[in-house]
Every structure is written in structure tokens, then in C-alpha cells.
């Protein structure tokens, strides 16, 4: 009413659809991302994209599973499909958010694994689609779904996907990217993997396209060798793909036979995207031109072969073993944002130059852009996490880093990734619960931490084995109330933000709209 009954209204007439849209609940802070594909789009991906789309349109199975090894470009491929003309990617959920080039942040490895988040995300996307077509009241979309159980949200999604298919006049496709991240979650009980619909539950009007690494024990057992699922594999890189990557990198002069160089690289390290990129980064460190035999020898000397873990081990073993190295491994393994050398030095209790020296020595698995360091790929983070978890000094390393974060307010922003993840890895239940207090929740807004991330951490913390249940319940009740109030605030200000955004759209170009803050207008 504070809009319709004031000059803030856009028109005099208030329709049933307007009332329905106003009453329909706006979800707070549900993960919503649209990732643009990295360029160039390689020829093999373009060819596979055409055949993949044609095949799934004709497919009688309504669950599609696209698998690929780490670093083969699965997320980028789906992003490419979503950008195509007349794309069939109607709905999409990113379990894992790769490095964001704008603010330098990315997901923890397990990403947005909760079933609650997945189904709410689909409901939010469905609501937006129906709203755009003025059909919310026609299809009787739920006004409020925050009080639904996970199973109720799941049933609602399965009910309304066919309704949207009728709206667009064709089957609709929902892509869930990053199943392997959910499979690695420590909170398997609440993971969306156990809630995915089975083939027999899906009607003719919609498809689920699941994307992840090859099926393993972390996946639901029914996903393996199921006749109701059609399986596809991401293709390996072809020679013409590697030629393009070599030319783009400027690794060699035009006089070099790029095709034979590409074949040499593939023969040594295979044709996975991640392996090829590391090989190119190593080639840039060499003094070229070299004979192809010499290049092959150099790559082998760096343990760059089809077992990429051996290369990671070689990079790390090239550094002198020290407590500083172990601390930096722990920080880079569990950090979810790009981090400057000064902050690393503060957490390690050393001078800036000492920290920078070790960080630079870990190139290219740890890279630097604008004085900020980050793991080149999530596969590197997983390797470092595994190394630090199995380090006999993990408790001492964890205690040292966390104490420095705790006593330096400038480092508090790292409580939400480094501190939390290190404590969970040590199974330090009491310390995890002490970390997640009311102040932790309230401060999260200052550091741009998403509501759902805090909620996931709160749930995960209470899955850990614990004593003193009475004390835990009192503590958790206060945090729960704080989370509930925080969610209400987000919902209120989201509605206000939507109003101001709508009023200012005609004052900005589309490009400006996503670069400028509305308060600047």
C-alpha cells in the first residue's frame, strides 16, 4: 500500500496480477548468478554444443548426466549453451561459483549444496518467469513458500515446471551444475543429491540436466548405470583447440609450427583443459624456441603429465619445507576470495616479503593478479586441502592462524572462510560453535557474506558431534533468532531495492545498470 496509495505508483489501475505479485513472497538472498562463458569458445566445444542440444531434444530419457574430469570446462560449456540464441537453458543452478573477476570471491568447495537452497532457487526462478508473463495468478503460484518443508518445495517445483512448459510451448530444461561439489559435502544428510527426482518421477514436459565429475560413491546409487538416464561425456581437446590456446597465450612466435607444438603438448600431458593450461604457463617460463624434443623433456622434468597431482606435488616440493609454507597452504586451501600478501603475512606472523616470496614460488598453481593471490583452480584447492588435513601439524597450524585472525579486526573477514573451514577440518566442534555467535551473523553483512552461506555454516556446525547439549541449545537459540531477523530485514530491503531499480532503469543503459549503484543516480 505504501506504493499503490502514494505517488510511487506507476499507474492508476491495480490488477489481480499486481496484487498477487505484491503478496508473493520474495526470497532473501537466494544464490542467483549468471556466468558469462570464457572466450574463446573452442571449436570442439562448439561442435559438441550443437550435437548435445540436438540429442537431448530428441531424447526419450528426461534425466541427462553430463560428466567430465576436473578442469575440462563443464561450467564454461553450460554457460556457453545458456548464451546461445534460443537457448534451451531455461533454469540453472550453480552449486559452485568459480572465481568472480569483479570482487575476487568464489564458493567453498561444497558450494550451495543444501536441498533447501536448490528448491528455493528453482521456485524463485519460476516465480520470475511467470511474473514476466503476467501468469502468477493464472497458475496460482504459491504466495509464500518459506514455510514449506524441503519435500513440499520439491513437489511444488515438479508441479510447476510442466506449467512453465505450457507457457513456452515446448519442454523446459533445468540445468544443475556442480554435482560433484555437493557429493563432497560433509553434510550429506541435507545435500540436494538425496532429493533429486528419479527418472520415473519426471513427466514429458521437463528435463533435468545434471552436470558434474564422473559418478562415484558420493552420488546417489540410482544414478549409476540407470537406463532412465542418458549419459554424455565432455569431449577432450582437439589439436585445433590447443593451437588456439597457444596462439592466444603468445607463448611462441609466429614462425613456430603451432600444430606440431600442440601435438607435442598433448602427447606429454594429455588433452584435458586444465593440464593444457598449466603446460602453456610452463612454456611461457621457458626460453623459446626449443626443439619439440627439448620441450617434451622440459615438460616431463616438471612432472607435467596426465597425472596432474604429480605436477602440484612438484611445485610444492620445489619450496623449502617450513611452518610458513604449511600455513600458506592452509590459507590458500580454505580461502574463498583473492587475498593480498600483506594479509597472508599477518595471518602467518611474518614480514610481507617472506610471505610474498613463498606465494610467488607456488606459481602457477597459486597465481597473482593485482597483488591478490588465489588458487588457479578448485582442483588445486582440493589438493591443498587434502595435504593440510593429513598434515600431522594441522592443529598447531590451525590454532596459530585462527588466533591471529581473532585478535586482528582487519582480518575478521577471513573468519567466514579460513577460520570456519579450518576448524571444521579439525572437527573442533566447541570452537566452531563459539565462532558462530550473534556477532558473527551481524558482522557478515559488513563483509558481504551471503545469508545462505551463514545458514549453511550454522547447519553444518550442528551436524558435528557435540557434548553439553543444554549449553549448545541456549547458544543456538540466540543465533537462530538473529538469523530469522536478518532474513526478515533482507526481505524488506529487497522489495525497496526492486522499487528503486525499476524507477531508474530508463535512466541507464543496460551495461550501466549492472555497473552503477542506484544511489549514484
Task: Walk me through the structure.
By secondary structure, this protein is of the alpha/beta class. The protein has helices at 16-23, 43-58, 74-83, 115-132, 136-139, 150-168, 179-183, 239-249, 258-269, 273-285, 292-301, 308-317, 323-334, 341-348, 352-361, 378-389, 394-406, 418-425, 429-435, 438-444, 451-461, 469-504, 510-513; strands at residues 63-67, 91-94, 172-177, 206-212, 229-233, 339-340, 366-369, 372-375. It contains 23 helices and eight strands. A hairpin with a 2-residue loop joins strand 7 and strand 8 (372-375). The chain is globular and about 75 Å long. The chain starts with 15 loop residues before the first helix and ends in an 8-residue tail after the last helix.
Biggest sheet strand line-up: 2-3-4-1-5
Low-confidence stretches: 499-521
Radius of gyration: 25 Å
- The coarse silhouette is globular
Instruction: Report the average pLDDT across residues.
Output: 86
Q: Hey, roughly how much beta strand do the residues contain?
A: 5-15%
- Largest sheet, described in full? 5 strands, parallel
Class from helix and strand fractions:
alpha/beta
Count every beta strand, where a strand is a DSSP E run of 2 or more residues.
Answer: 8
Distance between the termini: 25 Å
Percent of residues in helices comes to 40-55%
Q: Helical segment tally?
A: 23
Amino acid at each position: 500500500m505504501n506504493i499503490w496509495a502514494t505517488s510511487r505508483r506507476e499507474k492508476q489501475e491495480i490488477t489481480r496480477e499486481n496484487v498477487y505479485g505484491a503478496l508473493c513472497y520474495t526470497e532473501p538472498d537466494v544464490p542467483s548468478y549468471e556466468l558469462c562463458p570464457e572466450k574463446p569458445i573452442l571449436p570442439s566445444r562448439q561442435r559438441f554444443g550443437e550435437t548435445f542440444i540436438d540429442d537431448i531434444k530428441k531424447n526419450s530419457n528426461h534425466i541427462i548426466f553430463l560428466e567430465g574430469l576436473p578442469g575440462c570446462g563443464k561450467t564454461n560449456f553450460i554457460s556457453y549453451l545458456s548464451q546461445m540464441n534460443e537457448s534451451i537453458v531455461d533454469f540453472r543452478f550453480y552449486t559452485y561459483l568459480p572465481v568472480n573477476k569483479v570482487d575476487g570471491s568464489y564458493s567453498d568447495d561444497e558450494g550451495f549444496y543444501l536441498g533447501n537452497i536448490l528448491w528455493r532457487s528453482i521456485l524463485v526462478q519460476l516465480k520470475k518467469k511467470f511474473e514476466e508473463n503476467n501468469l502468477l495468478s493464472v497458475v496460482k503460484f504459491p504466495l509464500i513458500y518459506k514455510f514449506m518443508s524441503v519435500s513440499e518445495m520439491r513437489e511444488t517445483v515438479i508441479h510447476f515446471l510442466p506449467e512453465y512448459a505450457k507457457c513456452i510451448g515446448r519442454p523446459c530444461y533445468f540445468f544443475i551444475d556442480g554435482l560433484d561439489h555437493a557429493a563432497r559435502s560433509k553434510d550429506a544428510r541435507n545435500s540436494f543429491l538425496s532429493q533429486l527426482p528419479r527418472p520415473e518421477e519426471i513427466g514429458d514436459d521437463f528435463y533435468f540436466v545434471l552436470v558434474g565429475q564422473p559418478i562415484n560413491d558420493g552420488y546417489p546409487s540410482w544414478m549409476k548405470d540407470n537406463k532412465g538416464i542418458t549419459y554424455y561425456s565432455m569431449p577432450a581437446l582437439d589439436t585445433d583447440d590447443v593451437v588456439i590456446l597457444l596462439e592466444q597465450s603468445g607463448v611462441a612466435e609466429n614462425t613456430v609450427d603451432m600444430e606440431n607444438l600442440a601435438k607435442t603438448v598433448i602427447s606429454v600431458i594429455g588433452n584435458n583443459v586444465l593440464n593444457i593450461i598449466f603446460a602453456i604457463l610452463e612454456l611461457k617460463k621457458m626460453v623459446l624456441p626449443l626443439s619439440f624434443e627439448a620441450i617434451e623433456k622440459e615438460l616431463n622434468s616438471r612432472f607435467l603429465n596426465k597425472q596432474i597431482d604429480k605436477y602440484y606435488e612438484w611445485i610444492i616440493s620445489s619450496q623449502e619445507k617450513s611452518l610458513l609454507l604449511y600455513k600458506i597452504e592452509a590459507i590458500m586451501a580454505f580461502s574463498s576470495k583473492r587475498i593480498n600478501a600483506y594479509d597472508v603475512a599477518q595471518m602467518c606472523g611474518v614480514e610481507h616479503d617472506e610471505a610474498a616470496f613463498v606465494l610467488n614460488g607456488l606459481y602457477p598453481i597459486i597465481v597473482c593478479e593485482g597483488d591478490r593471490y588465489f588458487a588457479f583452480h578448485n582442483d588445486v584447492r582440493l589438493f591443498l586441502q587434502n595435504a593440510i588435513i593429513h598434515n600431522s601439524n594441522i592443529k598447531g597450524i590451525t590454532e596459530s592462524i585462527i588466533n591471529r585472525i581473532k585478535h586482528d579486526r582487519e582480518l575478521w573477514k577471513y573468519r567466514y572462510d579460513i577460520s570456519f573451514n579450518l576448524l571444521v577440518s579439525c572437527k573442533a566442534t566447541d570452537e566452531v560453535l563459539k565462532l558462530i555467535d550473534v556477532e558473527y551473523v551481524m558482522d557478515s553483512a559488513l563483509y558481504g557474506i551471503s545469508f545462505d552461506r551463514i545458514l549453511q555454516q550454522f547447519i553444518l556446525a550442528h551436524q558435528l558431534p557435540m557434548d553439553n547439549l543444554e549449553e549448545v541449545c541456549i547458544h543456538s537459540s540466540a543465533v537462530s533468532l538473529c538469523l530469522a531477523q536478518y532474513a526478515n530485514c533482507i526481505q524488506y530491503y529487497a522489495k525497496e531495492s526492486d522499487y528503486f531499480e525499476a524507477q531508474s532503469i530508463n535512466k541507464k543503459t543496460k551495461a550501466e545498470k549492472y555497473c552503477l549503484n542506484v544511489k549514484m543516480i
